[in-house]
């Protein structure tokens, strides 16, 4: 009997030892760091110019001095160290998106892409720059219902100023109109109404609501908040090593205690959470979801487009712990191409999982829409804004929809 016990103990300890070795091995793989050497040859480049790469490793900053290429003989070289294994995408610029690389005919090129699994060298050439080709100037496309509320609206919480735009539905300023309206607060205000202000195309929010209201849908005031140079920090709830401080709580405090009181004081609004909406895309979708979790007493409904949940994994446990406070309507959108294009299927899976967790822990009415052809851009979000608006502004129901291609 004693001998049997000894054998059993050895077997258990031996098994644990093997598992321990496997864990050590897997952790070494998981946390392996690699270097990427970029070697570029370029047309139309002057020695006095600065040339950079902007990608998903630096927040797509087109003028990041830490990612400036240096000239060595006939090449321009950048050595990026301490990258984890994964898919990386980037483009080359001369300091702004107006000076980004294009093909020999002046057309935009796709993101350059590399799947990093070891120390690697990526050699490529740039055919031309956007500045080399004459382009038609962008025109203002905002409807008459849109105005710049303030070009320098100060946030004491963030200690910085922002441009704020406001859309008032048709008929708002008519004489004898005493009607009060719901309000939708939207992130990245520079991309909502006006093609000239947008870096990557506008949502067309104003034209879309104009059309919907004329066809009998409920009207709504829309407040667009500019995203400035601290966008990543403002829209990110938590601090992390790569992007630094998370100012999400300060940003929501600004919306709740500074901007909303101003809007409610100067415009005919319906102030309750039932009639207050918050929406955004990418990091703007992330902070919109965070806002409805933290302040459901203010924001009763949310539009969460292509949310960057990957940067805040803590939201899963937060949903579990306080999701029961949410009882409004939440619209989730994600394009299937977003995962395929980036090499991170987790983009899509994270959104599905968060929607399921919220459904489990809250009383929210949820609409999850997956577009098989959807990408991570304003064109995709514009395509589905009418669907979101129509649903969120009417009596809703729980629904999961996979859109036809």
Chain-averaged pLDDT = 86
SSE run: HEEEEEEEEEEEEHEHHEHEHEHHEHE
Radius of gyration: 25 Å
Query: Sheet with the most strands?
Result: 9 strands, mixed
Quick description:
The protein is α/β, with parallel strands linked by helices and 405 residues long. The protein folds into two domains: 100 residues, Immunoglobulin-like; 257 residues, Alpha/Beta hydrolase fold, catalytic domain (Rossmann fold). The chain has nine helices and 18 strands.
Q: How does this structure look, described?
A:
It is a single chain. The protein has 405 residues and is of the alpha/beta class. The protein folds into two domains: 33-132, Sandwich (Immunoglobulin-like), CATH 2.60.40; 146-402, Alpha/Beta hydrolase fold, catalytic domain (Rossmann fold, 3-Layer(aba) Sandwich), CATH 3.40.50.1820. The protein is built from nine helices and 18 strands. Helix 6 (315-322) runs parallel beside helix 8. It is globular, with a radius of gyration of 25 Å. It starts with a helix and ends with a strand. Mean pLDDT is 86; it is low at 1-21 and 23-30.
Secondary structure: elements and pairs:
Blueprint: H1 2-30, E1 33-42, E2 52-55, E3 70-72, E4 75-84, E5 86-93, E6 101-102, E7 112-116, E8 120-126, E9 128-129, E10 146-155, E11 160-167, E12 183-186, H2 205-214, E13 221-225, H3 231-234, H4 248-266, E14 276-281, H5 283-294, E15 301-305, H6 315-322, E16 329-335, H7 336-342, H8 346-361, E17 365-371, H9 378-392, E18 399-402
Parallel strand pairs: 1-8, 12-13, 12-14, 14-15, 15-16, 16-17, 17-18
Antiparallel strand pairs: 1-4, 2-5, 3-4, 5-7, 6-9, 10-11, 11-13
Helix pairs in contact: 2-9, 6-8
């Amino acid at each position: 009997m004693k001998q049997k016990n000894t054998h059993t103990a050895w077997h258990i300890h031996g098994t644990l030892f093997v598992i321990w070795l496997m864990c050590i091995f897997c952790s070494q793989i998981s946390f392996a760091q690699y270097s990427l050497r970029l070697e570029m040859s370029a047309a139309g480049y002057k020695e006095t110019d600065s040339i950079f790469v902007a990608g998903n490793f630096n927040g797509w900053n087109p003028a990041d001095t830490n990612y400036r290429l240096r000239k060595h003989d006939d090449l321009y070289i950048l050595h990026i160290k301490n990258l984890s294994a994964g898919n990386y995408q980037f483009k080359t610029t001369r300091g702004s998106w107006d000076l980004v690389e294009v093909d020999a005919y002046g057309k935009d090129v796709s993101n350059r892409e590399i799947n990093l699994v070891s120390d690697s060298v990526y050699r490529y050439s740039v055919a031309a720059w956007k500045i080399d080709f004459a382009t038609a100037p962008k025109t203002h496309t905002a409807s008459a219902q849109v105005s710049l509320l303030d070009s320098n609206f100060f946030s004491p919480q963030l200690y910085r100023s922002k441009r704020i735009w406001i859309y008032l539905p048709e008929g708002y300023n008519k004489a004898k109109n005493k009607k009060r309206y719901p309000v939708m607060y939207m992130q990245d205000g520079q991309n909502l109404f006006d093609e000239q202000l947008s870096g990557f195309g506008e949502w067309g929010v104003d034209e879309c609501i104009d059309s919907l209201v004329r066809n009998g849908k409920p009207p709504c005031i829309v407040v667009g908040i500019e995203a400035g140079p601290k966008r990543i920090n403002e829209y990110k709830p938590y601090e992390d090593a790569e992007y630094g401080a998370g100012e999400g709580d300060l940003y929501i405090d600004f919306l709740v205690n500074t901007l909303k009181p101003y809007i409610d004081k100067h415009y005919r609004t319906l102030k309750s959470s039932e009639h207050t909406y918050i929406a955004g895309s990418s990091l703007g979708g992330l902070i919109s979801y965070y806002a409805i979790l933290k302040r459901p007493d203010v924001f009763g409904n949310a539009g969460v487009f292509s949310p960057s949940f990957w940067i805040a994994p803590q939201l899963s446990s937060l949903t579990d712990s306080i999701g029961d406070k949410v009882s409004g309507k939440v619209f989730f959108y994600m394009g299937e191409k977003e995962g395929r294009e980036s090499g991170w299927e987790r983009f899509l899976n994270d959104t599905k999982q968060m929607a399921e967790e919220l459904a489990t822990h809250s009383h929210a009415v949820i609409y999850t829409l997956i577009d098989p052809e959807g990408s991570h851009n304003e064109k995709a979000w514009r395509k589905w804004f009418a669907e979101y608006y129509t649903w969120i502004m009417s009596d809703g129901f729980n629904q999961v929809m996979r859109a036809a291609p």
